[in-house]
């Protein structure tokens, strides 16, 4: 009899503990820029080679991670090991992400990522075109979101309408999908920026290098932190970051 009572107690204990443990689990958002070989232009640390990137995605696949985009934000508590991969600036070389995702996708592993594009830069040299974005959005591997219209420092701009509203509308027209997340250029934001962002978006993404611990505080979804994956990040370091 005592044995059953003990089992019952264990069952009750776990029953109460599990949801709490889930709720406290931090959310991990990674930020990348170029996925390409570094050829000497721009900052090297903003590149990750396709070879390293593939190893990182392989690691996520082999270790049971679920890759999410912001339209599936509510799923973060339902899936195994949620992680958000984001790519800023809309570089043409993000096509490499598509190729690697396609290569590693399986019925058990559906890679997805968020491309934060600068709407006025679409189709410029080295940037994705609207045809590219349409195709990438349709592929099911990507959510295309906004990184403003001109990559302005939002704490200094006066033209929030163009940077936030026009950018959202233009990207939405290209992909035919909702634009709900904004990544702040240079990671710069203040109260005014958040107030303006709230008019058009459900999420504001910073580059504060932390994990996101949900506290239920006001506007916390407009201060989402992200961790940089750099050129110099080794696979061992990557494993430490995500685990
Ligand atoms: Zn940027």
From TrEMBL:
Pfam families: Polysacc_deac_1
Protein's cellular compartments: Secreted
Gene3D superfamilies for the chain: Glycoside hydrolase/deacetylase
Keywords, in A-Z order: Signal
InterPro entries in the cross-refs: Glyco_hydro/deAcase_b/a-brl, NODB_dom, Polysacch_Deacetylase
Span of domain NodB homology: 81-243
Signal peptide feature range: none
Domain of life according to the entry: Bacteria
Record's keyword annotation contains Secreted: no
The protein, known as: Polysaccharide deacetylase family protein
Organism annotation: Neobacillus paridis
Organism lineage string: Bacteria, Bacillati, Bacillota, Bacilli, Bacillales
């Amino acid at each position: 009899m005592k044995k059953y009572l003990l089992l019952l107690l264990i069952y009750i204990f776990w029953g109460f503990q599990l949801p709490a443990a889930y709720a406290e689990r931090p959310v991990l958002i990674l930020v990348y820029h170029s996925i390409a070989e570094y050829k000497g232009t721009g900052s090297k640390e903003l590149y990750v080679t396709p070879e390293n990137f593939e190893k990182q995605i392989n690691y996520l696949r082999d270790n049971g991670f679920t890759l999410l985009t912001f339209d599936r934000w509510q799923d973060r508590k339902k899936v195994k090991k949620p992680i958000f991969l984001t790519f800023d600036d809309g570089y043409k070389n993000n096509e490499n992400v598509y190729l690697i995702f396609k290569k590693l996708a399986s019925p058990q592993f559906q890679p997805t990522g968020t491309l934060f594009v600068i709407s006025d830069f679409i189709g410029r040299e080295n940037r994705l075109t609207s045809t590219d974005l349409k195709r990438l959005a349709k592929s099911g591997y990507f959510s295309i979101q906004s990184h403003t219209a001109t990559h302005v420092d939002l704490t200094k701009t006066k033209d929030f309408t163009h940077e936030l509203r026009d950018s959202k509308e233009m990207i939405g027209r290209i992909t035919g999908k909702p634009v709900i997340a904004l990544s702040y250029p240079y990671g710069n934001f203040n109260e005014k920026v958040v107030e303006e962002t709230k008019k058009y978006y459900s999420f504001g993404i910073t580059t504060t290098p932390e994990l996101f611990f949900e506290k239920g505080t006001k506007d916390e979804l407009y201060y989402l932190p992200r961790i940089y994956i750099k050129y110099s990040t080794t696979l061992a370091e990557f494993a430490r970051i995500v685990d």
